[in-house]
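1st attempt posting a full record on here, be nice pls
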Amino acid sequence: MTTGHSLLVEELTLGYKDRDVIDSLDLAVPPGRITSIVGANACGKSTLLRSMSRLLAPRSGRVLLDGQEVHRMPPKAVARTLGLLPQSPVAPEGITVSDLVGRGRHPHQRVLTRWSRQDDEAVAEALEATGTAELADRAVDELSGGQRQRVWIAMALAQRTDLLLLDEPTTFLDVSHQVEVLDLLTDLNASRGTTIVLVLHDLNLAARYSDHLIALADGGLHAAGPPGRVLTPDLVRAVFGMESRIITDPTSGKPLMLPIGRHHRAVLVD
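the predicted structure (as tokens):
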């Protein structure tokens, strides 16, 4: 099952003040798939995600959601189709976990419409899926960084959108919770056909969990496609400035990048 929604970027230029971060970028997000955006620090990954979700207006070019310019669409109309978990979300002081997760239902609320059983079910399901149900009555600002991150993911899931954009969703999480979150997103994609776009720093997690990789460098698109085609020593060298060896991950069958530091280059064998 796939959602059929399309998300395209055409000749997109983005920046802040007098500096362009993204220049004339073209790309398409495969519907019903998991896509990870990778690249070196400050290459524009988060900036691109913000513009795709309507938070940052382009200097030129456009983002198209189902053929419509996303920056010209009403915010609530966008939010019913496309959900975003930004990199550093801020919760209102004193808000409880259940209330924060419930805010994911706001795009579905209309004037004079009461909270429904469907809203309750969406919140409960999101809390359960992220392992945060036992935190429902706690204040968000009392939680650890990892707990807060899972609560924010629960809010995004409660929104029940067909497209979900997440900027570094594994931040603050230990290794086991990183894997749990990515497994959760994989299940969501498989069961509902949700199109998921992630910004990830961990290249190997991106390759393992994604159907499609987008690698940014020098303000533009360096490569895009399946991990097995995109993740190569040449790409790692060009995008991250690092030598590497690519092997097959024995667990997933996906490519696995082994970094080679300067103290080990003498033993590098082609």
